[in-house]
């Protein structure tokens, strides 16, 4: 009996001593070099490495929840997610809940791309009415007025990689793509079939948002992200997957 009670005590003590996991959201629409999903789990990529390093430095195990983009906000509101990365406040007009934002951690560009190089430079706001390739539930702040007016219409796919495949297949003339994902995609395209960067849609300063909760070490997370950004660790992660030095965020000028 004493042996049993002792074993139960040891198990209980171990459970109480184990830190709670830091729960991160992963959008199922992300593609490499941001995240690679295998069997519904992230295994590598810029954001995977960033979040795993953050959790390790904070002293918590990392737990990743892969969700459709449209479900992530609700998951945070319900307390199922602690940290959401690769976001900007410009994407949220009425973000409910109590959150704290990190400093900008990376700069990313959205590009208008095509299978052909146009004869004349393209201005997005002067495009003739047509459908362009977009990702389901993604907000494109610069393009939203054009979608609202009917000048342009969305042809949505589940992920950015699917958008690029649809462009190659001729589903539309233009698509919008994250620059890093486009560059990664082009590495696997034969010469003469690579997709072309036509115009810059917008440049975004992206960071993380942390749910304010007594059980979440919010300030430790924010300080760790600041240290990772200022030390160059995040830039090193980006270079590992893209082979290029990322543009400097304002905090590292």
N-to-C span = 65 Å
Number of separate strands: 11
Shape: globular
Secondary structure: helix percent: 25-40%
Mean pLDDT: 88
Poorly predicted ranges (pLDDT <50, ≥5 residues)?
A: 1-6
Portion of residues in beta strands equals 25-35%
The radius of gyration computed from the alpha-carbon positions, rounded to a whole number of angstroms, is 21 Å
Overall structural domain count: 2
Helix-strand topology string: HEEEHEHEEEEHEHEHEHH
Name the CATH superfamily assignment of the largest domain: Periplasmic binding protein-like II
Strand-pairing-aware structural class: alpha/beta
CATH topology category name of the largest domain? D-Maltodextrin-Binding Protein, domain 2
**Largest sheet: number of strands, sense, barrel closure:** 7 strands, mixed
What's the level 1 CATH class of the largest domain? Alpha Beta
Number of helical stretches of at least 4 residues: 8
- CATH architecture level-2 label of the largest domain: 3-Layer(aba) Sandwich
Describe the fold and architecture:
With 253 residues, the protein is α/β, with parallel strands linked by helices. The chain has two domains: 138 residues, D-Maltodextrin-Binding Protein, domain 2, CATH 3.40.190.10; 96 residues, 3-Layer(aba) Sandwich (D-Maltodextrin-Binding Protein, domain 2). The strands form three sheets. Strands 5, 6, 7, 8, 9, 10 and 11 form a seven-stranded mixed beta sheet that branches. Helix 2 packs across helix 7. Strand 8, helix 4 and strand 9 form a beta-alpha-beta unit. The protein has eight helices and eleven strands.
């Amino acid at each position: 009996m004493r042996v049993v009670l002792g074993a139960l005590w040891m198990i209980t003590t171990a459970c109480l001593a184990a830190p709670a996991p830091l729960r991160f959201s992963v959008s199922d629409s992300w593609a490499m070099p941001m995240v690679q999903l295998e069997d519904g789990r992230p295994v590598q990529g810029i954001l995977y490495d960033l979040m795993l390093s953050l959790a390790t430095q904070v002293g918590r195990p990392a737990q990743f929840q892969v969700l459709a983009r449209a479900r992530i906000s609700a998951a945070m509101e319900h307390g199922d997610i602690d940290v959401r990365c690769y976001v900007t406040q410009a994407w949220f007009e009425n973000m409910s809940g109590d959150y704290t934002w990190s400093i900008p951690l990376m700069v990313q560009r959205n590009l208008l791309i095509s299978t052909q190089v146009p004869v004349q430079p393209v201005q997005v706001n002067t495009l003739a009415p047509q459908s362009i390739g977009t990702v389901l539930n993604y907000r494109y702040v610069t393009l939203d007025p054009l979608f609202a007016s009917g000048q342009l219409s969305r042809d949505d796919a589940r992920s950015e990689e699917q958008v690029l495949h649809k462009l190659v297949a001729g589903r539309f003339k233009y698509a919008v793509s994250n620059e890093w994902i486009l560059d990664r995609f082009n590495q696997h395209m034969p010469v003469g079939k690579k997709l072309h960067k036509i115009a810059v849609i917008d440049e975004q300063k992206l960071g993380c948002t942390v749910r304010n909760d007594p059980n979440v070490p919010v300030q430790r997370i924010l300080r760790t992200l600041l240290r990772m950004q200022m030390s160059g660790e995040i830039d090193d992660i980006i270079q590992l997957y893209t082979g290029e030095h990322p543009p400097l965020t304002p905090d590292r000028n």
